[in-house]
Every structure is written in C-alpha cells, then in structure tokens.
C-alpha cells in the first residue's frame, strides 16, 4: 500500500534543498529548506506552433519521517498565444476530469468539491479539492487550482496522503501565498 500511495502521490500531482527562491521564467516560489525541489521537462513539445508553450513545470516533495512523500506540489506555467483567452473554469474542469480518470484506472474513487473562486498570487483563479478513497478508506487529498492572465496560464496542484495533507496543508498554503506571478497586462 505504501509503494502504491507513493506512486499515486507522484501521479496525482502530475506537477534543490534550501530556503531559496526557485525562479523559472516568471514565477517565483520560496520553498522551505525541507522540501525537495525539481524542475521538470515541459509536459508537451514546445516546437508545436498550434499549442501553447509550457514555460515551466516545477515539483516539490515534502517527505515524512520515514522518507516517504507526505505532500507533493506542482506548478505549471504556460505562455499563451497572443489573443488566446482562457476559460479558467473549463481548464479546471478538464484538470479535475483527468485526475479522476487516472484514479479510477488505479482502482480508486474520488469526490471533488464544487469549484470555487480563488486566487493564485494576484491572479483570479478557481479551485477544487478532491478526496480520494480506496475501498471506502480515505487515502489521499488533492487540490487543483487554475488561473490565467492575458499572456500566461498557471496550474497548481498539491496532493498528499490523508494524514500528510492535513499535516502539511498550512505550510503549503504559506508557500502558495508566497508565490509571485509576474503578470503582463
């Protein structure tokens, strides 16, 4: 079960040491020293002119006392084509659907809260939180957030084991509140 939960945490998040700002393109995140941070390759090839280019993908993992992932946070920033408008609610709906389909394929069930207005840095956003169960037992919680400006779109996901999410939620919210997105009007 532990190995499965570790795998699910990494899949569910689909997102260096030290308390330093991690800067990639325009987003700045200040990670606490006990988080393992990695820059990820773009989710899609940047050479495709018909699709927006992913500028950054960054994932950070907070391990529990046993060295197992307790919480995973992933931020994706995408540069938009000029004139492209993002329907944030539709993007969040697609994110939620993809996560739920992946969990079903793994034999898990998920129930998500109603999407609500939120913010990511200074950018209006929408978010939902999903509770993931296996055979009726709560095994994981994941929050999905989507936001967009005229030139850039962002998605933020944070997921943890049932206990890990509760234990690290306040710290993740502080990290989220410290996130600075440099928005181009």
Can you characterise this structure?
β9 and β10 form a beta hairpin. The chain is an alpha+beta fold. It is globular, with a radius of gyration of 16 Å. It has a single domain (2-42, 50-181), classed as Mog1/PsbP, alpha/beta/alpha sandwich (Protein Transport Mog1p, Chain A, 3-Layer(aba) Sandwich). It is 25% helix and 43% strand. It has helices at 2-13, 88-105, 162-178; strands spanning 21-24, 27-30, 35-39, 53-63, 69-79, 109-112, 116-120, 123-134, 137-148, 152-161, 180-181. Strands 3, 4, 5, 6, 7, 8, 9 and 10 form an eight-stranded antiparallel sheet that branches. The protein has three helices and eleven strands, in the order αβββββαβββββαβ.
């Amino acid at each position: 079960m532990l190995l499965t939960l570790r795998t699910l945490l990494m899949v569910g998040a689909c997102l260096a040491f030290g308390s330093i700002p991690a800067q990639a393109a325009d987003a700045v995140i200040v990670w606490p020293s006990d988080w393992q941070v990695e820059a990820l390759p773009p989710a899609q090839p940047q050479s495709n002119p018909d699709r927006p280019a992913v500028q950054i993908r960054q994932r950070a993992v907070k391990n529990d006392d046993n060295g197992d992932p307790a919480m995973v946070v992933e931020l994706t920033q995408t540069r938009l084509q000029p004139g492209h408008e993002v329907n944030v609610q539709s993007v969040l709906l697609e994110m939620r659907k993809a996560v739920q389909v992946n969990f079903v394929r793994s034999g898990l069930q998920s129930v998500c809260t109603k999407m609500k207005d939120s913010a990511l840095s200074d950018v209006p956003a929408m978010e939902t939180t999903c509770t993931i169960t296996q055979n009726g037992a709560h095994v994981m919680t994941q929050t999905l957030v989507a936001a967009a400006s005229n030139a850039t779109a962002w998605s933020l996901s944070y997921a943890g084991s049932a206990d890990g999410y509760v234990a690290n939620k306040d710290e993740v919210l502080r990290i989220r509140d410290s996130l600075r997105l440099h928005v181009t009007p």
